[in-house]
């Protein structure tokens, strides 16, 4: 697998050389490979949002190196290279209304491809394809994006990024404010993009069940540093009381603590049931 994202010893300070300086990133090193599904977690102020802004040149590291899709991101990077990179690294903010602006849904989603050099015909084709991909029905394409539900707005925002056919999708809390159905729909869509199209997903989240159910890797940030970079199963096996654990993980750990030998820590309800059934089939007690 090729490294799509490489950060080496990155530091970033807001208000550098002022009396209110705040170091948001401290000696951060990270690699993300093609097709990874990475979740980034940590408390407010841990550096998560600053980190993702470095990935398409919204901000630049003050020391250390950031390389994304072969482009070294620094203040003097050529405008053409930065524009090309931004077409390949899509960033979806937490609030979709931050990205929606056009009179109707189709115009909004066409903007990205047009901005990155597609013809009007190509842009419309790419926009329609991405809207279909995220499940927005044709009858909504002429409607103002601000008349849509929260879940639909989130989908349109994601479609606007997908229309430029990115290789990396970076999302900041994409399920915040959605009901259960909208939340599941967005997450399953992201899983399909990752598994079927091998789009790399880098997602900030505070929801531990998302980490358990969807992620291949979990990056834990604290005070601007990467404290852990591991698999969800290893993370949930060892983490202490800093995070609210998913129900299946809590039950699995309780069983382990009471001497029940599970083959592995369950991350989901299905895995929990399968672990217990397998344990009983071996003649043990659960």
TrEMBL record:
Enzyme class: translocase
CDD domains associated with the record: ABC_cobalt_CbiO_domain1
Domain of life: Bacteria
Residue ranges of domain ABC transporter in the record: 5-248
Gene3D superfamilies, A to Z: P-loop containing nucleotide triphosphate hydrolases (3.40.50.300)
MF annotations from Gene Ontology: ATP binding; ATP hydrolysis activity; ATPase-coupled transmembrane transporter activity
N-terminal signal peptide: none
Bilayer topology: Peripheral membrane protein
Localisation: Cell membrane
GO CC aspect terms: ATP-binding cassette (ABC) transporter complex
Keyword DNA-binding recorded: no
EC number: 7.-.-.-
Alphabetical keyword list: ATP-binding, Cell membrane, Membrane, Nucleotide-binding, Translocase, Transport
Pfam family, one: ABC_tran
Coiled coil regions in record: none
Keyword Translocase appears in the UniProt entry: yes
Record function comment: ATP-binding (A) component of a common energy-coupling factor (ECF) ABC-transporter complex.
PANTHER family for the chain: ENERGY-COUPLING FACTOR TRANSPORTER ATP-BINDING PROTEIN ECFA2, HEAVY METAL TRANSPORTER
Assembly mode: Forms a stable energy-coupling factor (ECF) transporter complex composed of 2 membrane-embedded substrate-binding proteins (S component), 2 ATP-binding proteins (A component) and 2 transmembrane proteins (T component).
Family: Belongs to the ABC transporter superfamily. Energy-coupling factor EcfA family.
Name of the protein this chain belongs to: Energy-coupling factor transporter ATP-binding protein EcfA2
């Amino acid at each position: 697998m090729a490294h799509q994202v490489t950060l080496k010893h990155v530091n970033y300070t807001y208000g550098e050389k002022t009396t209110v300086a705040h170091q948001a990133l401290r000696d951060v090193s990270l690699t993300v490979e093609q097709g990874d599904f990475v979740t980034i977690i940590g408390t407010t102020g841990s550096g998560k949002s600053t980190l993702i802004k470095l990935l398409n040149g919204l901000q630049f590291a003050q020391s250390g190196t950031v390389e994304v899709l072969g482009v070294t991101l620094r203040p003097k990077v050529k405008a053409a290279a930065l524009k090309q990179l931004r077409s390949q690294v899509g960033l979806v903010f937490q609030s979709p209304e931050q990205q929606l602006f056009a009179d109707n849904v189709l115009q909004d989603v066409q903007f990205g491809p047009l901005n990155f050099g597609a013809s009007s015909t190509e842009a419309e084709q790419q926009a329609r394809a991405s809207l279909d991909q995220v499940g927005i029905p044709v009858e909504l394409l002429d409607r103002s994006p601000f008349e849509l539900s929260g879940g639909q707005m989130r989908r349109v925002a994601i479609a606007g990024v997908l229309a430029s056919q990115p290789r990396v999708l970076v999302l900041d809390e994409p399920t915040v404010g959605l009901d259960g159905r909208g939340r599941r729909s967005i997450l399953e869509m992201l899983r399909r993009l990752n598994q079927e199209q091998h789009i790399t997903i880098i997602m900030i989240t505070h929801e531990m069940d998302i980490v358990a159910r969807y992620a291949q890797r979990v990056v834990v940030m604290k005070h601007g540093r990467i404290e852990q970079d591991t698999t969800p199963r290893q993370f949930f096996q060892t983490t202490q009381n800093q995070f609210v654990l998913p129900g299946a993980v809590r039950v699995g750990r309780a069983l382990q603590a009471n001497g029940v030998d599970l083959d592995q820590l369950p991350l989901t309800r299905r895995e929990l049931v399968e672990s217990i059934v397998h344990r009983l089939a071996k003649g043990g007690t659960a």
